[in-house]
Amino acid sequence: MVDPRVIRSQAAILEAATTLFLRNGYVATTMDDIAETANVSKRTVYNNFADKDALFREVVMAATGIAEAFAADAAAELADPDDLPAALFALARRLAEGATDPRVVQLRRLLIGEAHRFPDLAAEYYRLAPGRVMATLAAALEALAARGRLHVPDPARAAEQLAFLVLGPALDRAMFGGRRARRDTAALARAADDGVRAFLAVYSVERKRAVGEREAEPDDRE
After folding, report:
1. Residues 152-161: pLDDT tens digits?
2. Domains annotated on the chain, with CATH
């Protein structure tokens, strides 16, 4: 059985490391700083984490849990909803809010800046965070298409298009807005709704049916 004191120390160290890495960057953060912020000895830090690299990796990988939870919820909510547009609107709003959360944005900036130092970590974060969300959306869209709820010839591309329509510009603004940039949650929600409407305008079965009917009409111009 793990000593509860060890669990508390690890949690305090991870929280302190996360705060300092996000605020000061990887290079400017020292193990002494982390120990002081966590209110533990430097020896305790090293007893739990081999070095600063290992601690940085732990901080980054811990953040993938947010994407894992979102992906699980998305899979459940899009399994076969009674009201598909409503489910997509709700999911899109949460996607936009989650991806532009200040702490998530700071972590993205930090990891991008350190990708040359931790290329494998950056690749793994992408696979387990954005990549996992995209794969989950693609699988959900494919299943909905199989049930006749959507017309989606290429689920992976459709998932990417949905994500960009919902959060692409907002995420760009967040990434380049600086620490003092303020989130406009109402604007995020409106943009997410517009993104879903644009998505459904292309991939709804009603549109596919209308296009098919137009193509089947005789050409009277002959």
Report:
1. 999 999 999 9
2. 1-49 (1.10.10.60), 61-216 (1.10.357.10)
Percent of the chain with pLDDT over 70: 90
4, with CB counted inside 10 A (0-12, 13-18, 19+), is exposed
Q: What type of residue is 11? A: A
Q: In this structure, are residues 96 and 187 in contact, taking their beta carbons and an 8 Å threshold? A: no
pTM of the model: 0.85
Q: Is the pLDDT of residue 206 over 90?
A: no
Measured distance CA(172)–CA(100) in Å, rounded? 9
DSSP H helices in the chain: 4-24, 31-38, 42-48, 52-77, 84-99, 102-113, 119-128, 130-146, 155-176, 185-203, 205-216
Residue 212 has pLDDT above 80, yes or no: no
- CA–CA separation, 135 vs 186, rounded Å? 28
Q: 141 and 152 in contact (C-beta within 8 Å)?
A: yes
Q: What tokens appear for 122 in the block? A: 């950056």
Q: What is the mean pLDDT of residues 164-188?
A: 87
What secondary structure letter does DSSP report for 82? Answer: S
Q: Which amino acid is present at 107? A: L
| 102, 107, 155, 214 alpha-carbon torsion, rounded to 10° | 40
